[in-house]
Design brief:
The protein has four helices and 36 strands. The protein has 695 residues and is mainly β. The protein has one domain: Maltoporin, Chain A. The protein has a 22-stranded antiparallel β-barrel. Strand 5 and strand 6 form a beta hairpin. The protein is globular. The two termini are 45 Å apart. The relative contact order is 0.15.
């Protein structure tokens, strides 16, 4: 989409220059059935965080992200996709968007290449601001203060499709993406990696973990990244320093405390937009001329977080969890688009805490896993903006012409009961949120919001003895929005509901998982961006999203691993303008398809050689909500590849060393992509070579 200079202020003037964002196991019957479903499978967990996520290769077995309890994914009556640790290692994504490229229903690249923000949609609904969670806690964002992700610091990613507000509170109707941080391991682990490649890339990674003391009651982990790199656009770097220390304290088998911290300093470009040509107020396409000024184009973010995860098991019935995190982000953004320079500084911080009790018990023949909890989040941000004839740090800045801030408090109480009777699973949950928000505009006027909202979820599934689980589910969502819309009014909360039906199949005696679902979503007051007369404005609309998703994942003992998915998505505008009512939302393709296959040679002279290849198809879509054919997006196909080799097969003294090459968009497919009446280009070919040593 187009770029914005003024970010959601009380008098919001948007132009093409700054941002580029569209902004415990179930009891009794359940335990017996689970044993049938996984017969013949290894019980090994690839994650270093038992109870948070369990995986085997590319296949996820359970995750707390879906229900906040240790529920097998087969028994979760809702669509859940997982990017496992093995997938991350094989594909080596460089950002969150790269990591999600093979996830059905997720659309990345709607605004072309943009390294500043992790922007994407789920089921046609933008989740950039309200859909990203970290370790089960909401990741707080402000209009121009969006926390970035370093994939090297992750264990896995869980993608829950559809509303999850009944347990998570403020979150997108499209779903949530839960980023699961690397945690200390009981087994000593050490890794050093060096990377180089396209755009003068030079990167070093370290990851050390293990026990601190002989008893193993204290564990540590330290993960770090240092990178100096350019990008597909001259004057737009991709530099980063990232450190993430972590400690685990386990005084006994029933109590565990994990401390998670992170600091990242990253620098990229303040604008990445290409100059568009126009016919009146409408774009007719992008030129290959970069619209920014490399001498005044720094976008620097300093972000940090510190928090803990506490768990205590009182007995076989009660287990207490508490997750808490404080986050802070400082943003300094320079840009000079078309001779119009500006500066944006934004400071964002907040506290999120979630305390819940899991109670496992029976009432006659029905097993219950009852979750009750309370979470509180507090967001505050302050933004300042200046414009004028300045292009270097040595030049005096003009006074800030916009200075505004917002405080937002959200308190939610929730309950969820997962009931099991024979093969039947009934999940019922509800939550009430109390919102208190104050936005102070540039004139010093207060805009207050004080309201409450109930959200709920109900779902029914049946687990057959042969691994098939059909289900139906219903859920609602509630999302407070930071900032204001074009007319200066405070953006009202977004609400929505989804109905979904699907079937899951874990093939017995294999490590193969198949999923299919159909869904119908209604969303009101969704925050979107549209460009009018060359001006990028934030507005709110109502929409309907319907579609189909099919997904398969597998990892076999013979060295093969597979990912395959297809999705169909029709996103209809219900209310925006008379001219756009009934139209498909811009840059949302009807059809997407992807497949990734990976093979590691098991024996012979080539033992340890790994080959991976993937194809991603993105169907055609509309370049604006008016459906002007001149900027329609053509269908496109991207090819990715991977090659790796364990060097111990050359020399036994090299045990633990591995060489790897990864290529994204190998065929350099670089077409124009338009969204909301502004056009960009896809990122071109990128190749990264790495050498890794583990001991």
């Amino acid at each position: 989409m187009a770029q914005k200079l003024v970010l959601l202020g009380s008098v919001s003037i948007f132009v093409l220059a700054a941002s580029g964002i569209a902004q415990a196991q179930t009891v009794n019957q359940a335990i017996e059935l689970q044993a049938i479903n996984v017969e013949g499978q290894s019980a090994s967990k690839q994650s270093g965080a038992p109870g948070v996520i369990s995986t085997e290769g590319y296949v996820a077995k359970s995750t707390r992200s879906a229900t906040k309890t240790d529920t097998p994914l087969l028994e979760v009556p809702q669509s859940v996709s997982t990017v496992t640790q093995q997938q991350l290692e094989d594909r080596k994504p460089q950002n969150l968007q790269d990591a999600l490229t093979y996830t059905p229903g997720v659309r990345i690249g709607a605004f072309g290449f943009d390294p500043r923000y992790d922007s994407f949609t789920i089921r046609g609904i933008d989740v950039t601001y309200s859909g990203v969670f970290r370790d089960g806690l909401r990741q707080l964002n402000s209009p121009n203060g969006l926390f970035r992700l370093e994939p090297y610091g992750l264990e896995a990613i869980s993608i829950l499709k559809g509303p999850a507000s009944s347990i998570y509170g403020a979150s997108s109707t499209g779903g949530i993406v839960d980023l699961i941080t690397k945690r200390p391991t009981e087994t000593p682990f050490h890794e050093i990696e060096l990377q180089t490649g396209s755009y003068d890339r030079l990167q070093g990674n370290v990851d050390f973990s293990g026990p601190v003391n002989d008893s193993g009651s204290v564990l540590y982990r330290f993960t770090g990244v240092a990178r100096n790199a350019d990008t597909d656009i001259d004057g737009v770097p991709d530099d980063r320093v990232y450190v993430a220390p972590a400690l685990t304290f386990k005084p006994n088998e029933d109590t565990k405390l994990i401390l998670l911290t992170e600091y990242m300093d990253s620098t990229t470009g303040g604008t990445v937009a290409y100059v568009n040509t126009y016919d009146g107020p409408f774009s007719t396409g992008a030129t290959h001329h970069f619209g920014g000024d490399p001498d005044f184009n720094e976008f620097r973010q300093k972000q940090g977080r510190i928090g803990w995860e506490f768990e205590h098991r009182f007995n076989d019935t009660f287990t207490l969890h508490q997750n808490t995190r404080y986050s802070d982000l400082s943003t300094h953004q320079e840009y000079n688009f078309g001779g119009f320079p500006g500066l944006v500084k934004e400071d964002t911080g907040g506290l999120v805490t979630d305390t819940n009790l899991v109670s496992t018990f029976n009432t006659g023949p029905v097993g219950h896993e009852l979750l009750t909890g309370l979470d509180v989040s507090y967001l505050h941000y302050k933004a300042r903006e200046a414009y004028g004839d300045f292009t270097t740090e040595d030049s005096p800045y003009l006074p800030y012409v916009y200075d505004y801030k917002q405080n937002q408090t959200l308190v939610g109480a929730y309950a969820q009961d997962q009931m099991a009777f024979g093969g039947w699973r009934l999940t019922v949950g509800g939550r009430h949120d109390w919102l208190d928000s104050t936005f102070v505009d540039a004139a010093g006027d207060d805009h207050k919001q004080n309201e409450g909202k109930f959200t709920g979820r109900a779902a029914l599934s049946y687990i057959t003895p042969w691994g098939i689980a059909p289900y139906v589910s219903w859920g609602t969502s509630f999302t407070p929005n930071p900032g204001t819309v074009l007319d200066g009014s405070v953006a009202v909360p977004t609400t929505g509901r989804q109905v979904e039906a699907g079937v899951k199949y874990d093939i017995p005696a294999t490590n193969v998982s198949l999923r299919a679902a159909v869904f119908d979503i209604k969303q009101k007051n969704a925050v979107v961006y549209q460009v009018e007369n060359g001006v990028n404005t934030q507005t709110q609309l109502d929409l309907t999203s319907r579609g189909v998703e099919i997904e398969g994942t597998a990892t076999f003992d013979n060295g093969w691993s597979l990912l395959a998915s297809y999705s169909y998505n029709h996103v209809e505008i219900d209310q925006l303008t008379d001219e756009t009512e009934g139209n498909q939302l811009s840059s949302v393709p009807y059809h997407t398809f992807s497949v990734w296959a990976d093979y590691t040679v098991q024996s012979g002279i080539a033992k340890g050689l790994g080959l991976g290849a993937g194809v991603r198809y993105v169907g055609s879509s509309f370049g604006d909500n008016l459906h002007r054919s001149i900027i329609d997006n053509e269908a496109r196909t991207f090819v990715d590849a991977s090659l790796r080799y364990d060097l111990v097969n050359l020399d036994k003294r090299l045990e633990g060393a591995q060489f790897q090459i990864n290529a994204t968009n190998l065929l350099n497919e670089k077409k124009q992509v338009c969204s909301s009446n502004y056009c960009y280009f896809d990122e071109g070919r990128k190749i990264i070579a790495s050498v890794r040593y583990r001991w």
